[in-house]
Amino acid sequence: MEHRQRAYLQGLGFPALATTSSGYAHSQGYADGALSLDQVLAHFHEIAVAADVPLNADFEDGLAGDLDGLAQNVTRCIATGVAGLSIEDSPGVPLYDLDTALARVKAARRQSIAPAATWFSPRARKDLSAACPILTMSSGA
Q1: Among candidates 104, 101, 43, 93, which has minimal Cα distance to 69?
Q2: Are the beta carbons of 32 and 58 closer than 8 angstroms?
């Protein structure tokens, strides 16, 4: 999201903004999920400091394969100034099993109640399109 887009959306009266991982990645010439952690965090920070409303970050799967890495990345994400983030249930297909997905959400939640997170809201996201392929089928095909 560029500053012009942010200003336009705020001008329409939206009380909050949200990022899109695929939209930003594609606008930079990358596939969804191909940006580095530093690129993603810089994007969040750029919007968060320029926005006058809360920002929810599409943080993909937290850009980490293990719980310690996820916790560290969530801490770094909070430091960008976002008001919330979404953690997906998969780094792609297949989805994480339920126990793994829950452990990842809990790890993100623990970081969100740390002293540095004065007001923060983590969200878990379920990718139904990966679990139910029929939802992604075109009705015209």
Answers
A1: 104
A2: no
Q: How far apart are CA 41 and CA 36, in angstroms?
A: 9
For the domain spanning 3-126, the CATH number is: 3.20.20.60
Tokens of 83: 């008001």
Classify 73 in phi/psi space as left (phi over 0), alpha (psi -120 to 50) or beta: alpha
How far is Cα 110 from Cα 123, in angstroms, rounded to an integer? 12
Buried b (16+ CB within 10 A) or exposed e, 70-95: bbbbbbbbbebbbbbbbbbbbeeeeb
pLDDT digits (tens, 9 = 90+) for 24-72: 999 999 998 899 999 999 999 999 988 888 898 999 989 998 999 999 9
The residue extents of the domains of the chain are 3-126
Place of tokens 């920070």: 45
Rounded distance, CA 84 to CA 121, Å?
4
Identity of the residue numbered 133: P
Residue type, 106: K
Statement: the pTM of the whole predicted model exceeds 0.70: yes
